[in-house]
Amino acid sequence: MDVSDRGRTIERLLGSVAVSAILAGVGLLVAIDPARAGCVPDGGITVCSGEMLGNNFLGGSVLFDKTYKTVGAPELFGAYVISESGAMTVSTEAGSVISAFGYGLQIENNGTGATTVSLAGEILGGTTGVLVATSSGTTDLTIVQSAGTISGSLNGIEAYNSGSGNTLVTVAGTVNTVYVNNNPSAKNLDIVQNGGSITGGSYGIYAYNSGTGHTNVTTSGTIQSLGDGGYGIYALTGAGGTDLTFNQTGGSITGAGGGVHLFNLGTGNTSVSVSGTIASTSPYAGALYAANAPGSTGSLTVVQNAGTISGKVAIEVSHLGTGDTTVRTAGTLTGTITGINATTFGGNQTIVQTGGTITGGEDGINSHAFGGIQTISVDGKVSGGTRRGIYAYNDSGVTAITVGAGARVSGGTYGIEIGGSGSTINAGGRISGGSAAIWYNGSNNTLNVYNSARFNGAVDFNSTTGNTINFHTGSYTLAVEDYLVNSNQINVKDKSLTLITSGIDPDTKAGNIVVVDNKAVSASPNMVRDFAGGILGLVGEIVDIDAPRPARTSGAPLGYADTTGRPSPTDIQTGSIGQGTTYDAYGNLVWLRSLAAARQQDASGGQGALQSRQWGMAGGIDHQHDDWRFGAFGGGGKTSATLDGGSGSSSGDIGLAGGYARRTLGTAWLDAVLAGGYIRTETKRRIGTGGETATGSFDGWFGAGELALATRFALGDRWSLTPSLKARYVAAAYDGYKERGSSQNVSYDAHNAQGLEQRFEAKLNYQTSSEGRPMNYWLKAAGFAQETIGKTGYGATVLDTDFTVRALGDRTVYGTTVGLGFDIVLMKNVSIFSDIDGTLTSDHARAGSVRGGMKVAF
After folding, report:
1. Is the pTM of this model over 0.85?
2. Closest to 447 in 3D by CA, of 423, 464, 479
3. Which terminus of the chain is more exposed, N or C, with fewer CB under 10 A?
4. pLDDT (tens digit per residue) in 267-303
C-alpha cells in the first residue's frame, strides 16, 4: 500500500481518528527508538526475543526469534513493522508466537527496495494473520512460509504489491486464506503451495494480478473454501497482464462456489494442469472453470493428468477471444449436469480423452465452436444421463470426432449428436443411445466405420443429404434410420468387401446396411500356396545333398549291391565334408525337418492388411542308385491368417505325402518333387457394429509339383556356386460351406485355385571343418514370379443376395528372396542343419521362414 493509505486496511476495526493516532505513534517510535525493550539491533537488523506485549511497533528489518511470544491483553496488532527507506527483511523463527485481535503481524515497506518475509512460527490474527503492503517505490515482494500456522478470520496471508517488481508467496504449513493482489505497477505474481493446508471462508487462494506480468498458482496440498459461494482457488489476470498458469501436482481443492475459478483478461495464454481432486461442494457450482476474455489471442489449455474432478460441470472452459482451446483428460470427471462444457468463439477447439471416465447428468461432453476446427477424441468412457454422450456443434467450421477402439460413448437419447454440417465421425469403439447411436442435424457429414466399432442403436441421418459412410476392413451390419439411399453415398475401403443395401426400406427409410469381408476365406489359396512352397523348398534342399556315395553295380538289386571295392566308412566320412553330410556304406539317408514361416501383407491397392503363418514338419528317406536318387516323405502342419484389426481369421490343418527324384547329368542335375494332401480350414468373421462372429469350416485338397535344373561351379578349394532354374505348380480344390452364428451368415460355393511360379536362384557355398567335424555354410538369392491362373472368382450368397468372391492380391506378383544356412556334422552319422530367408514381393508383402532339422545315415 502507499503511505497515504496504509491505515485503510484497519479502518474496519477502528475509526479514522484512532487510525491517525496509531500511525502518528508509529512514526514517533521509528524516529525516536526503533527497538523496544526485548528487541535489540544486531548488524542492521532488529532481533526480538522473549515475551512482549502487543502493538509492538518496529522499524526496518526485524527477526522474531524462536523465543518471541505476544503476551498480555490482545491488541490491535501483535507486531507492526514499517520501513521508510531501502529494502526490508522480516523473519519469524519456528517456535515464535505473534497474536492480536486485529492483525497478528503487519508489515509495510515505504522504501525503495525489495521486501522479504520469512515465516516459520505461529501467527494469529483476529482478522488477518499476516498483512504485507509495499509502496510505489519498492520492487519485489517475497513471502515464504516454511512451516507453522498462520490464521485469521478473513485471511491468513494478505499481501499487496504497489511497487514495480514481482510478487512471490510460498506456503508449506497451515494457513487460512492466501489473498494476494498486484497493483498495476507490479509485474509477475506467483503463489506456490508446497504441501500443508489452506482453509478459508470466501477463498482458499485469491490471486489478482492487475500488473503487467504473468500469474502463476501451483498447489500440492489441501485447499478448501468453507463459505457459501466460496472458491477453493480464484485467480484473475487483469487486462495489462500476460499468461495465467495453474498447476496442481496433487492434493485436493474444494469450494462451495467452485473448486477452481480462473479468468484471464490479459494478452497471454491460460494453462491449467491438474493431478489431484477438485470439487464443488454445492450442486449448483462448477468444479474447474477457466476462461479467456474477448479480444484474447492467447491459447486456453486445460490438462487433467490424473485424479477426479466433480461439480455441476466438472470442467468448463470458455474462450471469448480468437485463440485456440484445448482440454485433455485422463482421470475421472463427474458433473451433475455436464462432464465437460467447452465453448470457443474464434479459434480451434480440441477435446482429448486419453482414458478414464467423463460423466454428466445430462451430457457427457457438450462442445460448442463458432468457426475454426473442432476436434473431439475419446479413448475412455463418456456418458450422458438424460441427453447425449457427446454433443458437438459448429456453426461454420468443421468438426471431427474420433471414438477409439476401447472407448464407450453413451447417452440417454443419443450417443453422439452433431449440430451443424460437414462433420466427420471416426467410429472405432462402442456408441450407444436410447433413441439413436448417432443423430445428425445437418448434411454433408462423413461417418468412418472401423471393425472395432459397435453401435447400440441406429444411426439416424434425419433425412439429410450429401452424407458419406466409409466402411473400412471388416464385416458390418449397420442399422440406419431416415436414410435416403439415393441422396447419400456408401464406400468400402477394401476391395475384398461386398456392400449390400437391399435391406433398407425405401418407404420407411430404415433398415440395415450389410458389408461382408471375404478375406478370411479368400486367404486360403494363398496360405496353401505358401505352405506347399515351403514344403517343396524344404524337400528340395534335402535333394541338394550330393556327397560321394559308395560304389555301385548298376544292375544289382538295391538290397544286394556288390560290396567289392566299396569305400570304408572313414573314406566316406572324409569325402562327405564338402556338403557336411553323413552316409553309411549303403547310402541310405533318413531325414527329419521342420519349418516355420510368417508373411505380412501390407494394406495396398484398396486391400486391407493380412498376417499369415505356417508351421510344419516332414520326414523322409531316400536312396541313391547310380545316377538316380529316389525318396519319399510325409508330414503335416498348420496355417493361420489374421485380418487387419482382428476383423477375421482362418486356420488350417494339413496332412501331406509325396516323393522326389534326382537325375545326375554330368555336372548338372534335374530334380522333381510331387506332393499332395488334405486341408481342413476353420474361418471366423467378426461382424463389426454388432459384436457377432460368423464361423465356418470346409475341407479341401491340394497338389503341388516342382521341377528344378541346376549345376555347380567350383570357385576354389572350398567355395562353389550353384545356379538353378525352378518351375512350380500348386492347385487346390475346396468344398462349399455355410457360415453360422451371425445375422449375416454367408453361403460359399465350392471353388478351386491354381498357380504357377518360376524362380531363378543362385547359391554360394563354403565348406570347412572344425575339430574333424565337417561344416557347410551358404548364402542364396533368388528372383521369382508367381501367377494365378484359371478362374479366380466364385459365387456366394448372403441375406438372399448373390455376389462374387474375388481372389486376394494381384494375378501376377514378382519378388526376391535372400537367405543363409548351415549344415554341421555332429558325429559320424548325424548332422544338423538350418536356414533362414526373407522375401519381398511386388504386392507389398514381406515374408520370412526358418527351417531346421536332422539327418541320420545308417
Report:
1. no
2. 423
3. C
4. 999 999 999 999 998 888 899 999 999 989 999 999 9
